[in-house]
């Protein structure tokens, strides 16, 4: 994926995980929080690290930090009044907003303001959200096993021209290639399939194993 820029307003547990993961994936991150300690800890990951009381920030203050130029802003704040206020100000400037919500009621109110993407941290970690929003190829697997995810990616160059059975993916990476989207068809579970450069691989595994695998392929 192309490098993106994102602003994260509120660097609590969720916001910090999102900001750090986004930076590790090679994206540019602007971070804002009132806690000086948090700002210092995350400053190596941020292109702009601003300590500020978000309740007192004006729209001009926000824009002066370069937020107008980001691909989207993450409002990672639990307080509904502040989350709504910041979301509204960002939306008025034409900035795409992703907002955190702790309850379905909060999510509904934020959607009424025009926030299209709502993240519920109780069900979605900051790490997972960063992959989904910035990398565009992570999918939750809903069901009994809640620690499973699926991902789509282009095959690494070293895989092209080889059979899936020869790659030993499960033993090497702890993930499974469960299918291949080719230009002709969707291939499911064929270990003798020879990987092509135009293919899209569908992999699955435990959340951390999939994240580690994707990092290795960057």
From TrEMBL:
Residues spanning the membrane: none
GO terms assigned for molecular function: monoatomic cation transmembrane transporter activity
Domain RCK C-terminal residues, every copy: 136-218
Domain of life of the organism encoding this protein: Bacteria
Listed InterPro entries: NAD(P)-bd_dom_sf, RCK_C, RCK_C_sf, RCK_N, Trk_Ktr_HKT_K-transport
Example GO biological process: potassium ion transport
UniProt cross-references to Pfam families, sorted A to Z: TrkA_C, TrkA_N
Protein's UniProt name: Trk system potassium uptake protein TrkA
Gene name of this polypeptide: trkA
């Amino acid at each position: 994926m192309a490098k993106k820029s994102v602003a994260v307003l509120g660097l609590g547990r969720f916001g910090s995980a999102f900001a750090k993961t986004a930076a590790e994936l090679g994206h540019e991150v602007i971070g804002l929080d009132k806690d000086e300690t948090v700002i210092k800890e995350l400053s190596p990951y941020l292109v702009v690290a601003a300590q500020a009381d978000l309740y007192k920030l004006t729209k001009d203050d926000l824009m002066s930090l370069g937020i107008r130029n980001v691909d989207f802003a993450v409002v990672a704040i639990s307080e509904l009044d502040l989350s709504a206020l910041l979301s509204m100000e960002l939306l008025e400037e034409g900035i795409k907003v992703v907002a955190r919500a702790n309850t379905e009621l909060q999510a509904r109110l934020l959607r009424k303001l025009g926030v299209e993407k709502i993240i519920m941290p109780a069900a979605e970690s900051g790490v997972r959200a960063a992959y989904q929003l910035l990398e565009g190829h992570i999918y939750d697997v809903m069901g009994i096993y809640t620690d499973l995810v699926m991902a789509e990616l282009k095959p690494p160059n070293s895989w092209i021209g080889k059979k899936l059975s020869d790659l030993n993916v499960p033993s090497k990476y702890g993930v499974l290639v469960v299918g291949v989207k080719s230009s002709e068809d969707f291939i499911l579970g064929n270990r003798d399939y020879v990987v092509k450069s135009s293919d899209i691989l569908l992999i699955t595994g435990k959340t951390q194993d999939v994240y580690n695998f994707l990092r290795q392929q960057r």
